[in-house]
Amino acid sequence: MQTHCIFVTGGTGYIGRPLIDRLIERGHAVRALARTASAAVLPASATRIIGDALDPSTYAEGVAPADTFVHLVGTPHPNPAKAREFREVDLASIRAAIDASTRGRVTHFIYLSVAQPAPVMHAYIAVRQEGEALVRATGIPATILRPWYVLGPGHRWPALLKPAYALFEMLPATRASARRLGLVTLEQMVAALTRAVEHPPERLRICEVPEIRA
Asked: How many CB atoms are closer than 10 A to CB 85?
């Protein structure tokens, strides 16, 4: 297996922290962006880059020598009431990440997006679609992952919907939507991101829920 040097934004978060642990366990080098106040959350074996995810000038010089950029920054527990945060945090951070990754000359960009289309969360999906368009426009080989909801510690209430999902997947009229908007576990998400790092695409790769679960 070829090892990589990965720059991670959102590395102190729900998905980022276990992902960094997994990447280091597998022999990869990790450079992780964090604010001064939260840097201690990162493992000592990761190189800590102090900066602001919304301001590329604070961390762009710390991206190199990473060959892969993983962008995980986003509004925690998104809901329709947070439309303003989606634009001020999620969209602003992907713009900053693309700026920094371009300056750092990475060869693979990984973006955590969201399953689409969907009957709810329109503002959130719209921002993630803009983020995907920005990633595509760079021309850098990229992997875009589209989970709907990631089950894990503190994020378990949708598990109550599993019987309904099972029913919808059995019905031809709702099967495609149920699979596209299915639930994935934190472990599946970390595994999918790790696979993305270790198997970079030649151009653009989209990973929907069925691929994330694989």
From this structure: 18
Please give the distance of CA 36 from its chain centroid, rounded to a whole number. 22
Are 35 and 93 a contacting pair, CB within 8 Å?
no
Domain map of the chain by residue range? Answer: 5-150+184-208
Number of H helices, E strands in the chain: 8, 9
CA distances from 190 to 17, 80, 96 (A): 10, 26, 23
Q: What CATH number should be reported for the domain whose range is 5-150+184-208? A: 3.40.50.720
User: What CA–CA distance (Å, rounded) separates 32 from 141?
Assistant: 21
Name the β-bridge partners of 49.
Answer: 33
Amino acid in position 65:
P
Peptide bond into 65 cis (omega under 30): yes
DSSP codes joined into one string, 79-105: -GGGHHHIIIIIIHHHHHHHHHHHHHT
Nearest-angstrom CA–CA distance, 10 and 172: 38
pTM: predicted TM-score of the whole model, two decimal places: 0.94
Which residue(s) pair with 111 in the sheet?
71, 144
Vertex 124, ends 187 and 190: CA angle to 5°? 10
Question: Is 9 a residue whose pLDDT tops 60?
Answer: yes
pLDDT at 153: 86
Task: Indicate if the pLDDT at residue 23 is higher than 70.
Answer: yes
- Whose tokens are 């998400």? That residue is 189
